Amino acid sequence: MTDSVQSKLIISSAAAGLRPGDDVLEDGEATVETEWREVNVPVESHGARLDRALAAIVPEFSRSYLQQLIDAAAVQLNGVTVTKTSTKVKAGDDLKIELRPTPQSQAFKPEIIPLDVVFEDDHLLVINKPAGLVVHPAPGNWSGTLLNGLLARDEQVSTLPRAGIVHRLDKDTSGLMVVARRRQVMDQLVSMIAERSVSREYLALVHGVWQGPKGRRIEAPMGRDPRNRLRMTVVDLEKNAGKTASTDLYLLQQEGAFCLVRCRLHTGRTHQIRVHMAFIGHPLVSDEVYGGKPAAGMTRQALHACRLAFIHPVTGESLEFTAPPPEDMLTALEQLGLGYNQVQ
Fold first, then answer.
1. How far is CA 140 from CA 109, 137, 167, in A?
2. Cα–Cα distance between 298 and 313 in angstroms, integer?
3. CA dihedral sign of residues 319, 324, 328, 329
4. pLDDT digit string (tens) for 3-58?
5. Active-site residue 122, yes or no?
6. One of 154, 170, 172, 287 is an active-site residue; which one?
7. What radius of gyration do the chain's Cα atoms show?
8. What is the pTM assigned to this prediction?
9. Burial class (CB in 10 A: 0-12, 13-18, 19+), 3
């Protein structure tokens, strides 16, 4: 901040001495402290957009954060609330900003969340993630994620990027994940996944009558669907942006118009199994994003990460973990005549 900028801080919470964004407990309820900051626009910001001027005047906060405050009617220009980021300011204008914590700023906080830990040592964890648990904070899910639960469970991971998470499962996919507890181990696991030396297998309940050999490999590059940015799709890399994607499939059982398929990932693209299965005409049961229909009581895509195997990056021990499908998928398999125990 330049010497020409006069700034005054006004703490609007009763709990003095806390930082903006800290939680304050009053009468058993959580409240959030905010800070009002008053500044004068310096000469060098004359004629600038409001968001750019604020970013220069209070550089300790990101421009995107300040834009959110403007949108939230938390900025006053010469005593008048302003909600347009493009508003031009003049030298000497009075600005008053209510520095509120955003959902993003509070996302990386510990939260007590029950986690099914199937293996743990000083270096890593293996977790059996339930369906419905989001892995990383993101729009619509800024709290209650696996990352929040890991931060509460293990202080070590607070110093790691993404709390040690090296790969992810979709919110509605259940099953096994490995999480690092140390930075060196995290780097090694990321490299191992990139080198395809971590074996990840899934069980998928899918629509359709299987044709051809039981085993097949799908080599189909994937990218963002240009018609729907929330979906992924198979693309032609000569015409569209994308990355190679490879999945091994093996038919375990067929019963009527449903199949139980084992899927092994060689790459880890977003929605890879869901896209590849839809691409060959076998969308996952209840995966309506990619053409699947609800069946046998399934209300989420019928996909479960059932097996995880890798060499321990520190001890060199060969590790293998398996997890049976959760109750909803087991019930669906039984109703459709695809008994899980028959394929083990």
1. 16, 8, 20
2. 37
3. positive
4. 444 444 333 332 222 233 322 222 223 334 567 889 899 999 999 999 999 988 88
5. no
6. 170
7. 25
8. 0.74
9. exposed
